[in-house]
Amino acid sequence: MRNLYLILFLAASLLFFATAQAAPADLPETGQTLCYATAGGVVDCTNTGQDGEHRAGAAWPNPRFTVGAGAAVGCVTDNLTGLTWVRALNNNITITWVDALVSADVLNLCGFSDWRLPNINELESLVNAGEAANQATVAAFLNAQGFDGVQADTYWSSSSLAGGAGSAWRVDMWDGVLNTGPKSAKHYVWPVRAGQ
Fold first, then answer.
1. Is the pLDDT of residue 18 over 90?
2. Closest to 150 in 3D by CA, of 173, 128, 171, 130
3. Residue 141 lies in a domain
């Protein structure tokens, strides 16, 4: 009988931990506010089922980004994700993926030395899908939020393409498109660090 109680206890414990691990992630909104017809063109969002109608996800805080002060003026905190980003980007330098990893890793800025190249999800979190849809660039939106020198061009992530060791994921800050490319190509770098 004692073994039966032990088995029931273990089964209940496993069930508890399995369901506790299955909670959905609290993903942020995309910023998309418009809806489109199949052939293109803006339409009323009512009953379209599109992202512009539902705007699902965690609401963006206001302000979304906060520029650091004092010794931290070279950094911007994303109040939605808690990540800290380099504020002023060197807009004249594009480098290979390996060099991007190294340059982010050796950065010392705002009193921090734990900078790194963002993964694809972190980098994509900067994209405001509504800005790209409104004929403005993602870069223009970010520069208006306190960043300086964001280019409407491609930025490296630290994420390699699964099954394609010679390629990595990147984000185009013109329209927010994610794509992959050879690690030997040269793109922009945007270091990030975990929040305080």
1. no
2. 173
3. yes
